[in-house]
């Protein structure tokens, strides 16, 4: 356990997280930052998870977390109250009673360097990374990443690489394209990425790895001569970022003379729980 005398405050931890994942990088519709918690309280244990769902919050309290950092917001739209008669209100009451704060880094973590898509790219052993859709005036920041494999490999082998690199989900990995097609340049986007097909085509990628691909955009992208597609679970595509974020927090605090324990939740919070082949 860390030396409790060297424990940072929640204010200290939030300052680091907001420096690494600047709230100004978030999309205008997003809701990021501190959701609940007293900035003056000490933080000794920090949990990291994709979704602030009941099971994740129960786990955080069982593990004695003083802070839970999640990628997805609990409140994406404005609310007028958090009574315990609603399921989200119950979660907030549970966190406060348990002495745990909640912090969200969502699209600001998507745009960060390194961010969510960097972690996905690293999990697939890609190198020479650059943003798929750079932010204006900040070419190192942006949504998605494009990178290279060390050597070209068939789409079938690459799909197996993706399946082995990411945590298992009931939906597994879906592939669109000729299994023998060689791929080397890879575009990735953690989370839902079917709005980025234009940027993917411009990048010259041989294959695009993302989540939540819908029928029509995927079909039209293939018909237009676009890259092969690898569709994974939304939760799985963002999960690799958690350890990156935890490691960054630990190293930054240690450089300043304080420290925390961290853990990454391995609870599978993908909402789909079964997959059956039709026919």
UniProtKB/TrEMBL annotation:
Subunit field text: Homohexamer.
Cellular-component GO terms for this entry: cytoplasm
Pfam family for this entry, one: DUF34_NIF3
GO molecular function: metal ion binding
Organism: Catenulispora acidiphila (strain DSM 44928 / JCM 14897 / NBRC 102108 / NRRL B-24433 / ID139908)
Protein name, entry field: GTP cyclohydrolase 1 type 2 homolog
Matching InterPro entries: DUF34/NIF3, DUF34/NIF3_sf
Domain of life: Bacteria
Residues that hold a divalent metal cation according to the record: 71-72, 110, 234, 238
UniProt entry tagged with the keyword Metal-binding: yes
Keywords linked to the UniProt accession: Metal-binding
SUPFAM superfamilies to which the protein is assigned, alphabetical: NIF3 (NGG1p interacting factor 3)-like (SSF102705)
Family named by the database record: Belongs to the GTP cyclohydrolase I type 2/NIF3 family.
